[in-house]
Amino acid sequence: xxxxxxxxxxxxxxxxxxxxxxxxxxxxxxxxxxxxxxxxxxxxxxxxxxxxxxxxxxxxxxxxxxxxxxxxxxxxxxxxxxxxxxxxxxxxxxxxxxxxxxxxxxxxxxxxxxxxxxxxxxxxxxxxxxxxxxxxxxxxxxxxxxxxxxxxxxxxxxxxxxxxxxxxxxxxxxxxxxxxxxxxxxxxxxxxxxxxxxxxxxxxxxxxxxxxxxxxxxxxxxxxxxxxxxxxxxxxxxxxxxxxxxxxxxxxxxxxxxxxxxxxxxxxxxxxxxxxxxxxxxxxxxxxxxxxxxxxxxxxxxxxxxxxxxxxxxxxxxxxxxxxxxxxxxxxxxxxxxxxxxxxxxxxxxxxxxxxxxxxxxx
Length: 363
Known about the structure:
Blueprint: E1 2-6, H1 16-30, E2 34-40, E3 53-56, E4 61-62, E5 65-66, H2 69-77, E6 82-86, H3 91-98, E7 104-109, H4 119-138, E8 141-144, H5 147-156, E9 164-166, E10 184-188, H6 197-207, E11 215-219, H7 224-236, E12 243-246, H8 254-263, E13 266-269, H9 278-285, E14 290-293, H10 298-301, E15 309-311, H11 316-328, H12 330-347, H13 350-362
Parallel strand pairs: 1-2, 1-6, 2-3, 6-7, 7-8, 8-9, 10-11, 10-13, 11-12, 13-14, 14-15
Antiparallel strand pairs: 4-5
Helix pairs in contact: 1-13, 6-11
């Protein structure tokens, strides 16, 4: 088959969608298919770009939503058996539907709708919703990452539920090295407002009153303006020596990131616009007890007090109380971590999940 994966951003830009597309493309090629990744140069440095990806110029661009005349021209010239769109909220997906020729369309939604929005984002989503709905109607198959995301999709959009499939995200499973745990609170992925890192910073200030040896590590891409804002908050709370920002680690540096996961005492995920977070599963596989906000499929992945802890509001006092609970009950923390790994091993092995996705391509 000749296949196009369409995403508004791709590696070396780091994010959950990028890694999903990377793994999917790798395994589709192993099956003998030809795959092009059609993306844009939005926020993407020229160094270390992937050879099988075409980075079209992003212009114009509004709120990280790029239009691309290059992508449009490419689709007018090229034909694909399958075009796989990743997200209904970005213009490259809309362009692909409009100029698909006879291609079949699979759309994977990595987060149907945010749980909370600011006024600007709410206005944008309201304006863009008819276009997102058009993409869904023209899709032959729609993949959502969890049952709760399917329910949200049906509630928000008018679609044919017969073409919706629930297929979770997954990860390439790694084996723990049994590294010694340190008092690290870990936060990975894109560090943006939607992921609510400021809630963790404020919670750390509360926890620090009782536990002085804790540190927080953020790993992932962050825009300079937002980093300055967070640094100011950290300074005002007297946490300069407690919080570190590490740059995003590339595919080739994955072992370094996995070691940070394994050394961490607790992992925190606070995104309010989620599908089924890869970063959460990566922490779980290394028996790290996780605290997650109940957005998207996160609360299906983490069952409260079985394989992690779930919070239902983005409140720093609530988050701080959960961190303190794990510090005071380390036997329970270890049990949560062990159950977390069992969950990932049983349900989120990427190689099994890929077979389910590939069956849709073959159909």
